[in-house]
Design brief:
Blueprint (H helix, E strand, L loop, with lengths): L2 H12 L9 H13 L3 E4 L5 E5 L4 E9 L20 E2 L2 E3 L3 H18 L7 E8 L8 H9 L4 E4 L7 E5 L1 E10 L3 E2 L9 H14 L4 E2 L3 E2 L2 E9 L6 E2 L2 E10 L5 H16 L4 E5 L1 E5 L5 E5 L1 E2 L2 E2 L5 H12 L6 E4 L5 H7 L4 E4 L13 E3 H18 L4
Parallel strand pairs: 3-6, 3-7, 7-22, 8-21
Antiparallel strand pairs: 1-2, 2-6, 4-5, 5-23, 8-20, 8-22, 9-15, 9-16, 9-19, 10-14, 11-12, 13-15, 17-18
Helix pairs in contact: 1-3, 3-9, 5-6, 7-9
Length: about 375
């Protein structure tokens, strides 16, 4: 169970495509690897892999990584095969290497090594979850409701630092309603796109909320669609935008909605714009559906929290600095800590900005260090002391 085996497993995962809803091959590959390492392994109704190393009555510690990746939409910008798993210059290249198949491989092997520790009392559980890229934390919540844990470690990239919190994410839609007319007589209608332009200007002028630790609750417009589309010489009667809003611990669904409703009301007046939190519905590879509001809360543990302190101590004991950080993006911790309230920390190799990019890669050295870090975290957090 050395680091070379772990790297070989990582490369096989990277070579296995696994878009949200298409993770079956990766899940079966991972489940088989975990069985070989001694995990009691099963695949749940949504297709997530659950591997457990039973303890003797202490706290259950869950280590989570997701199997799905974003698609490759910019293949012309890649200099390597996105699914080649090429290893050179001390790096593994390919889609998912940094987000987050590298972390999954290091986690599976590091926790398996910790499973042999005499001092360990609690169960160790590794979850390789599905559909994180589209429904952050929802699949993990399903696992944790079936297999409760007292502590969760998410493996998203931290540059080997320890994350004690992270911003959440909400998807909101704004729909403006005008009146159709022939485009040769636009004065007889009301152009919904022009109404939306005023909403967009209002958004541009709005100051985002700010948190002293997690930064700004930014709002970014990610798509625009008019109705009808294509227009066919028709003044559009409808227009819809989607807004990606990064959430802070002070946010609630009601607060986020009201803020955006105020912007829309000021821009176009009453009755001409509707604001909603989007709903997601995604079919998993097993055929089961994950469904719910696309609102994934922020989370934050205080520096003095016992889980944070013990995790720092474990990382320092294995030669890592234990430096604290927070995630700027949303992770599965939105489900484990933001929704379920389970103390959660993040630790993983790679950097946030290394995800979702052309020539995505992961440092071999960091993978090996992360494997040791996961082992140390598992030994400490499941020790029961």
């Amino acid at each position: 169970m050395d680091w070379r085996q772990m790297l070989a497993f990582c490369i096989r995962l990277v070579r296995t495509e696994s878009l949200p809803g298409g993770e079956e091959a990766a899940a079966r590959l991972a489940a088989e690897e975990m069985r070989k390492l001694g995990y009691c392994t099963r695949i749940d109704a949504y297709g997530s892999v659950i591997g457990i190393l039973p303890g003797s009555g202490g706290p259950t510690v869950c280590f989570d990584a997701h199997l799905d990746t974003v698609p490759v939409t910019d293949r012309d910008q890649w200099t390597v095969d996105p699914f080649g798993g090429e290893c050179r210059e001390g790096k593994i290249f390919g889609r998912g290497a940094c987000d987050m198949k590298g972390q999954a491989a290091a986690m599976v092997y590091g926790v398996a090594r910790a499973g042999r520790a005499v001092s360990r009392r609690g169960d160790l559980m590794v979850t390789l979850t599905v559909c994180e890229e589209v429904m952050e934390g929802v699949a993990l919540q399903a696992v944790l409701r079936q297999h409760p844990a007292q502590v969760v470690v998410v493996g998203e990239a931290t540059g080997l630092r320890l994350a004690r919190g992270g911003r959440g994410r909400a998807e909101l839609t704004v729909t403006t309603r005008g009146r159709a007319a022939h485009s040769s007589h636009p004065e007889e209608g009301e152009n919904a796109v022009m109404l939306m332009a005023r909403v967009l200007q209002g958004l541009a002028n709005a100051s985002p909320p700010r948190h002293p630790v997690l930064g700004e609750g930014i709002a970014v417009v990610t798509d625009v669609i008019s109705e009808p589309y294509p227009g066919m010489s028709v003044v559009p009667h409808g227009c819809r935008i989607t807004i990606d809003r990064r959430l802070l611990p002070t946010d609630t669904q009601q607060k986020v909605l009201e803020e955006l409703q105020e912007v829309a009301l000021s821009a176009v007046g009453s009755g001409k714009a509707e604001v909603r939190i989007a709903r997601g519905r995604h079919r998993t590879w097993t055929g089961a559906e994950l469904e719910g509001a696309k609102y994934f809360p922020a989370w934050l543990l205080p520096e003095e929290h016992p889980v944070v302190q013990r995790a720092r101590q474990a990382l320092r004991q294995c030669g890592l600095p234990g430096e604290l950080t927070t995630y700027q993006y949303c992770t599965n911790a939105a489900g484990s800590c933001g929704v379920l309230g389970i103390p959660t920390v993040g630790f993983g190799p790679g950097e946030e900005r290394g995800a979702h990019v052309a020539d995505e890669h992961m440092s071999v050295d960091q993978l090996v260090e992360a494997m040791a870090g996961y082992e140390a975290l598992a030994r400490e957090l499941a020790s029961g002391s």
